Model the fold of this input.
Amino acid sequence: MAQEIIEVPKPLSDQQVRFFVDNGYLVMPNMLTRDELEELKTDTIAISRGKYPNDSLKPLPDHLSDTEVLQNILCIHQPHYISPVIQKYVKHPLICGVLSQITAAHLPYWDGSVKCMQSMLFVKPPGFQGQAWHQDEVYIPTRDRSLIGAWAAIDDATIENGCLWIIPGSHRSGLLYAQREHNNPDEFDSSLESYGFDDSAEIPVEVPAGGVVFFNGYLLHRSRRNRSNIYRRVLVNHYMNAYSPLPWHVKPGETVASADRRAIVPVAGVDPYAWKGIEVPPRSVHLRTCKANASASSHASRKPENAGKSLQPESA
Ligand SMILES: O=C(O)CCC(=O)C(=O)O
Done:
């Protein structure tokens, strides 16, 4: 049987690809249109209201306002497991075109094939914390340093509302830094903090709505508390070279070398392991609420059935 090939555009110049390889990130403005941003905002509310059949978020009563529904949600993990709209954005042709040029551009002979394993829909309302320094490959291991985040700003992402901060070039050595608890719960959520490096070269990555920040899984990054009075909504999808197995967790009877999680979405080029099949993911999302602001909850507050329990061992 002929291998299916997913064709995507190639929007980047050689200089942009080189910039990503050297610096570990690339900012691309105007990747999403106004209509697409509206569709994502509407879908964020639909998911949060429990409109899609799923095992974790029960439908909320219609009398609750959108603000009440969103106000406790820091992030919805794996929304593409339940929402066809988010599935469409996981496969967004322009975003996947960029990914097919940069995801494993550090590897000679790579043919541009890419797969997705994770989506995260941040709401990050006013006052909600960011995430301390980390590298995504600590959580989602690839075998070739090809993990990449595509961080799509649904609202303007600014210093005030908690944009990304990065250390350009911090992916180069391939070192995964140690992690520890941080003691700054006002600024950062409860995720561990990477440490042991000089962060004086950090820069904020402010992006107008519709822009996408692409960043390598070894790049040190963090985000701060939302100090504005608007949401900072972002759809962050994680992808990798389709040729690398994904030993995200190891099941009994497997080794790290044989483990390959297959709840993936091929998005560009080929799926070289198509013969293994694709695992159907659970119809379930994981809701990350905000610890410090939990007391600010209203009657819209709810604990999903899988609250505090990740579908995957950990996520970035
Ligand atoms: O946007 C944020 O606040 C954090 C995102 C992040 O750290 C990630 O996508 O890995």
